[in-house]
Amino acid sequence: MKHTDQVTATPDDTDAILAKHRKELTDRGYVDIDEHRGLKVGARVHHIGEKWWEAGENGTATVVAILEKNPSSWSWGGRPDIELIAQRDDPSWGGPFGRWADYHTALATGPLEL
What we know:
- The chain is α+β, with helices and mostly antiparallel strands.
- Helix content is 28%, strand content 31%.
- The chain has helices at residues 3-7, 11-27, 53-58, 73-76; strands spanning 31-32, 35-36, 39-40, 44-47, 61-69, 81-88, 97-101, 105-107.
- Strands 1, 4, 5, 6, 7 and 8 form a 6-stranded antiparallel sheet that branches. A two-stranded antiparallel sheet has the order 2-3.
- The longest helix is centred in the first third of the chain and has 17 residues, at 11-27.
């Protein structure tokens, strides 16, 4: 599936794209986990490269899976090897899902109280 197809993906296409992301990780030894340092399925997040204020406040995606690989070269160094899959609010930013490491992830803060 080309990127342009992912932008206009149907629900069936979206399920297939999510399954592909999950399979790529599980084939490399990752397993699903429930939580990592406050990061849970359903959490609102943004990639740390998304620097505008709305991204930090509201998030740009919702976590749909958190996976860990242990052992891995990362875990041997003392840091867990965590990858997540997040469903983007705007699929034109690279398709309906983003997949990145926990250290590239920030939880949405919610609106600031004045």
